[in-house]
Amino acid sequence: MIDQEEIHHQRLSDDPKERIKALEQLEGNFSLLLDKQQAWEDLHKLTNDEDKNVSYWTASALGSAFSHVPDKQQAWDELIELLTDGDIDVEYSAASALSSAFPHVSDKQQAWNDLIKLTIDEDYAGFFLTHSLGKVSIFKASQAEKEEDYKKELEKAIEFFEKEQESHSLWSEWGNPSQFCLPFYRSFYTIIFKKQGAGELDKYLTEAKYAIEGSKSKKLLFEAVKTLQMH
């Protein structure tokens, strides 16, 4: 059983390692905690922590727990603030969390505007958001009711992944997220909308297969696209 009182005491600790332990519990178990208001207050209080390692884990926890927090607008605003923290690791964590949070915000147009506005930044915040915007565009495509809207959002996603790939050298510390996403969604787009020949499709599929790197989820996606190719 999860001891919520212990989480609260860890959050109040002067030791950053204890505060990170609290965040790990909040990230993995927020939906199971009985007093979600207290859990949210503990998470909220840690968004202004001076320790950058704590801030990194706070952003990660916000992304994972977002669908369960009682005040999603405040959680979104705090992720936006963490994205402009100035610390490269914190900004990376916040950008990733924002793409996870997006499906659960009520005003998705405003949330999209928030993200687009931040991409004009020349620092890492704007760069990290490129991949997140690609993922958000995939989500928007999945919600589209008209084929033309679906196609448009899928094209947007590919454009974001292409832009990210062009700057792949900046991802040396974190790997290159678009290494799989770009060829995968190019393959998917080619199969659905028949825009390229068989040779081009095989090229995309080969690149996507190479980028799976032992990931079970990526392998499942790849096999799904291969199945589509045969139809």
What report would you give on this structure?
It is a single chain. This protein has 231 residues and is mostly helical. Helices cover 72% and strands 0% of the residues. The chain has helices spanning 4-12, 16-29, 36-45, 52-65, 72-83, 88-101, 108-118, 124-143, 147-166, 178-193, 198-210, 216-229. Helix 4 (52-65) packs parallel to helix 6. It starts with a helix and ends with a helix. The relative contact order is 0.06.
Summarize the structure.
The chain is elongated and about 55 Å long. The protein is 72% helix and 0% strand.
Secondary-structure element sequence?
A: HHHHHHHHHHHH
Name the beta content range: under 5%
DSSP strand tally: 0
Total number of domains: 2
Instruction: Predict the CATH topology of the largest domain.
Output: Leucine-rich Repeat Variant
Annotated CATH architecture of the largest domain: Alpha Horseshoe
Nearest-angstrom radius of gyration?
A: 19 Å
- Uncertain runs: none
In percent, how helical is the residue content?
Answer: over 70%
The chain-level mean pLDDT equals 82
Q: How far apart, in Å, are the first and last alpha carbons? A: 49 Å
Shape category: elongated
Indicate the structural class. Answer: mainly alpha
CATH superfamily of the largest domain: Leucine-rich Repeat Variant
Quaternary class: single chain
